[in-house]
Amino acid sequence: MWIPDSFDVRSGEGAPSAGIGNGFGPPRQTRSLDVIVTRGGVVESRHRVHAAVVSADGTLVDAARDPELSVWWRSCAKPFQVMPFLRSGGFDAVGWGVEELALACASHGGEPEHVAVAARMLATLGLEEGDLACGPHDPLASRGVRLAREAGVRAGRLHNNCSGKHAAMLGRAVQLGESTAGYELAQHRVQRDCRHAVAQWCGLAPERLHVGVDGCGVSVFGLPLANMALSYARLVQAAAEGDGASRRVVSAMTSHPFLVGGTDRFDTVLMEACGGNVVCKIGAEGVHTFGIVDRGLGFALKVEDGAPRAQYPAVLALLAAYDALPSSLPEAVREYGQRAVRNTRGESVGMVRVAYGDVGDRVEMAP
């Protein structure tokens, strides 16, 4: 079983990439994950969904449309971007624990609990909110928006859903003795370390990753969906087999799902419902990657047009196909799987859900 070697803090490189590349071969099976919007039993809109399901040994188990479509990974890479800091011992040296690790992997909702952990991380480093390179934005969770408004708090950089990741990157810069100014730039040692770690987990050479600028200002990586899925398969399998850093990341995310997302946010309600057996991470523009712990499988999907309303039903459909959802699905999760289309009077006039088979004016649905 592949488990990554310890991170080399001198070179910034980990174990040699386990050269999977794009040579996955044909999938064992294929399926449709397209999501449709119906009105009066007629299809009004359709979202094309691409997906890959990969085992830890690099087998392409299942696919929808193009499993090797290259897309930007966005925030789904966070569990691997923190790995250099975690493996090098720097994370523990500053006295951070499971809450800080969960927030480093999070796209949080900007609620008071999230802001408090991010502020604590900065204070430990002797830094402040202004040292974060991410810009301010309103909380993503409606509760966060309401509480900030009631408290008369103006949204700042700590409310940014990536503030935990940025705080961890600042911690890595401090550990290395590198400048904290410009830590977000692709040529900075912190970002180069992240690139090497992501490449290693995804089975690609670093130079095969496309590098751009994410919404929060740091490097974002472009790579095939199948390689994204491989990384999550490796993560959950390595955690199960005792790799310390992998186990800590999976445990932090699944034991503190609120910090990973927030009130009524998809990743949070899903991980809560699955009782630690699913670790998942949302990305912007319809990207999602997740793993089933007891199966050692990794999943990655991309909604072609980036629509979040199609993203969640597709994730749930894949998990259902692999028996990873509880038999009694909480209503908060169920609503993400089949969401009513309502008119201005609040009446249900249609549905957003995964379509199976040919879709014309007759709609065929999953049983």
Task: Reconstruct the topology from this structure.
Blueprint: E1 29-30, E2 35-39, E3 42-47, E4 49-55, E5 60-64, E6 70-72, H1 78-81, H2 83-87, H3 90-93, H4 98-104, H5 112-125, H6 142-151, H7 163-176, H8 189-202, E7 210-213, E8 219-224, H9 225-240, H10 244-255, H11 257-260, H12 266-273, E9 278-283, E10 287-292, E11 297-303, H13 308-321, H14 331-337, E12 339-342, E13 348-354
Helix pairs in contact: 4-7, 4-10, 5-7, 9-10
Element order, helices and strands?
Answer: EEEEEEHHHHHHHHEEHHHHEEEHHEE
- Rg measurement, Å: 20 Å
Oligomer: single chain
Task: Please give the order of strands in the largest beta sheet.
Answer: 1-5-4-11-10-9
Written description of the protein model:
With 367 residues, the chain is of the alpha+beta class. The protein is built from 14 helices and 13 strands. The strands form 3 sheets. The protein has a 6-stranded mixed beta sheet. The longest helix is centred in the middle third of the chain and has 16 residues, at 225-240. The radius of gyration is 20 Å and the shape is globular. Mean pLDDT is 92; it is low at 5-20 and 357-367.
Overview in brief:
This protein has 367 residues and is an alpha+beta fold. It has helices spanning 78-81, 83-87, 90-93, 98-104, 112-125, 142-151, 163-176, 189-202, 225-240, 244-255, 257-260, 266-273, 308-321, 331-337, and strands at 29-30, 35-39, 42-47, 49-55, 60-64, 70-72, 210-213, 219-224, 278-283, 287-292, 297-303, 339-342, 348-354. It has 14 helices and 13 strands.
